[in-house]
Design goal:
- The protein has 157 residues and is α+β, with helices and mostly antiparallel strands.
- It has three domains: 30 residues, no CATH class; 81 residues, no CATH class; 31 residues, no CATH class.
- A hairpin with an 8-residue loop joins strand 1 and strand 2.
- Bound molecules: adenosine-5'-triphosphate (ATP).
């Protein structure tokens, strides 16, 4: 399978689910944990990338998902997709963010129910940020634009 990643010029070839090679420099290979093709469904991508992230959080670890790419490359589609619910259910075409939160809160409810006797309670904190033109915006509070970078235990406060 060859991918046109620069306009109409095909420059990369997908060797397998982990490796891309650069046409013209076939010895130059780029290796990733997983390479999703452009036809992958929102659901499948969530299973590959989002679900393991939520399971990580359920184990008490921090997780971060980062969408990076040129304009029009599909960042918003991937992260949000079609967020309009159908009869109270997620749209088949909804993206990573609604799927992650639905799965996370379902998992939390199940765990709290299973461990009711221990009165287990989960506490979640999340940030949802956009970096555009070197400016940071809090997407949960879009009026908070141009946030300052801070270095320390928590990177951005
Ligand atoms: N995998 C896909 N399947 C179908 N449509 C897609 C897919 N990826 C992107 N699109 C469509 O391509 C267009 C551009 O995608 P999108 O807005 O997500 O790009 P973006 O990277 O967020 O761009 P920008 O940086 O300019 O905000 C949109 O109309 C989107 O619906």
């Amino acid at each position: 399978m060859e991918r046109a990643l620069q306009g109409n010029v095909t420059c990369l070839k997908q060797e397998n689910a982990q490796t891309l090679s650069w046409l013209g420099h076939p010895e130059t290979r780029f290796t990733f944990d997983h390479i999703a093709c452009e036809m992958i469904s929102q659901e499948k991508l969530f299973k590959v990338a989002g679900l393991p992230m939520v399971e990580n959080c359920m184990s008490g670890y921090n997780s971060c998902m980062f969408a990076y790419g040129q304009t029009g490359s599909g960042k918003t589609y991937t992260m949000m997709g079609n967020i309009h619910e159908i009869d109270g259910n997620l749209n088949d075409d909804c993206g990573m963010t609604p799927r992650i939160f639905e799965y996370l809160f379902t998992r939390i409810s199940m765990e709290e129910e299973c461990q009711r006797d221990e009165k287990l309670r989960y506490s979640c904190k999340c940030s949802f940020l956009e970096i555009y033109n070197e400016q940071i915006t809090d997407l949960l509070e879009p009026s908070s634009t141009n946030l300052q970078r801070r270095y320390g235990e928590r990177c951005i406060c």
